DNA sequence: AATGCATATATTTTGTAAATTATTTTTTAT
DNA sequence: ATAAAAAATAATTTACAAAATATATGCATT
């Protein structure tokens, strides 16, 4: 009877309260609303959202399982601060999964399970990235960049691979840093060329070419990520 | 079946109740105590363990996040029934991660970060697998088999890779089937040879050889897994 | 007087029980 | 036989209680 008294905005359609809290918090973390290493107090969050502690706790544990935040026994939840080694490790696995995806995409192209026109979406993404970089906020730029890789992963047609890749991305959201615009612009150029090489590898169904362009791209991307991390300190 | 008391306190030092319940349940699932697709009722489990529902729910959600079981909104928790496609997908990612690990292990051997004697542990595991297969229960056999691959993953020195590999293994525990002893014996022979080839690839620091022996092994292993699945229906 | 240890207190996490909400099944009426 | 309504079942959430940890305070010792 006292139902619907709370005002936890946005699509709470058939979702549980814990789920709503989870997606809200994930959004806040991605937007960098919390400082790195900041502790998240269930009680405060509960008060902020106008719900009790249980669903908040549920959400926090879920986020910890997904790698968004870190949970220490009896010592609460903290926003992850990835170390250089962790970033290297994530990039290493990322490379492995992207190689796996490409191998699969090429296989599917060859056996006709995947329409070659699907690759046009990659072209579109690559071009969208090259223009309009100035009036985009950090989150959008990162999202656009991420979409390119996520799309390739999706084309592999392996949901388990996709979910693994996603959870990998979550592990570093706390470490993504706002780079200066000048830095960004030169990066976009390189990234554009590298992405183009990756698309070509897929389109020509040439795994060797795909393999080497992915490795080049990942290596450069790792360098940038490590540089960003060092800048923050 | 016996509604006897489960001693959760055993060695529960520093662990929370939810954690104890989680590991107990994980053990039960691995041992095949639950039927495939069986629904897990929090209330029943709580009664069985003599605790309240909250820690049980916590454990179930944790297990769902790890891929042990499946959770459907408002419809409870179920033991996963992997489909043939899911098994294929898992094996595909498994292969990718094992290739990544091997590449890293060889790199570490070359740069001297990993002692070549570490590989002796793989020899030991391989030999242990070949003998004493008759008086081992299913779980032990699977564990021994799994250890071989897990050890290689560990040698890569990438905790994130290791945790991904682990969660991948969880995704199929519900689908592991008790094979007949005769079937098993012939399998062990093949597996032994394949594992030997994999070790050789690493020891010779020959990635191409490692790559092809892993692919051969995974392909054969996938065939067996799919055959097991088909046997059950 | 300063430092280290021990105890006490306050804060936070974890666990319980009960209430609420959603879903499924059964019953009843058309 | 079908559809609607009510009851039963089970998941979710809340509020409250307990357990555990960190922090602060005080006393003793050097």
Question: What does this entry look like structurally?
Answer:
Chains A, B: Keywords: DNA-binding, Transcription, Transcription regulation. Chains A, B: Residues 15-82 form the HTH gntR-type domain. Chains A, B: GO terms for molecular function: DNA binding; DNA-binding transcription factor activity. Chains A, B: This is DNA-binding transcriptional regulator, GntR family. Two copies of one chain form a homodimer. Helices cover 66% and strands 3% of the residues of chain A. With 233 residues, chain A is mainly alpha-helical. Chain A folds into two domains: 3-79, Arc Repressor Mutant, subunit A; 84-232, GntR ligand-binding domain-like (Four Helix Bundle (Hemerythrin (Met), subunit A)). In chain A, helix 1 packs across helix 3 and helix 2 (42-49) crosses helix 3 (53-66). The termini of chain A are far apart. Mean pLDDT of chain A is 86; it is low at 1-7 and 9-13. Chain A binds chain B through residues 14-16, 54, 58, 61-62, 65-66, 73, 86, 89-90, 92-93, 95-97, 99-100, 104, 158-161, 164, 167-168, 171, and chain B through 14, 16, 54, 58, 61-62, 65-66, 73-74, 86, 89-90, 92-93, 95-97, 99-100, 104, 158-161, 164, 167-168, 171. Chain A binds a DNA duplex (30 and 30 nucleotides) through helix 3.
The second-level CATH architecture of the largest domain in chain A is: Up-down Bundle
Helix content of chain A: 55-70%
Outline the low-pLDDT stretches of chain A. Answer: 1-7, 9-13
Rg of chain A, Cα atoms, Å:
20 Å
Spatial sequence of strands, sheet with the most strands of chain A: 1-3-2
Largest interface: A-B, 29 and 29 residues
The residue-averaged pLDDT of chain A reads 86
The class by helix and strand makeup of chain A works out as: mainly alpha
At CATH level 3, the topology of the largest domain in chain A is: Four Helix Bundle (Hemerythrin (Met), subunit A)
| Main pleated sheet of chain A | 3 strands, antiparallel
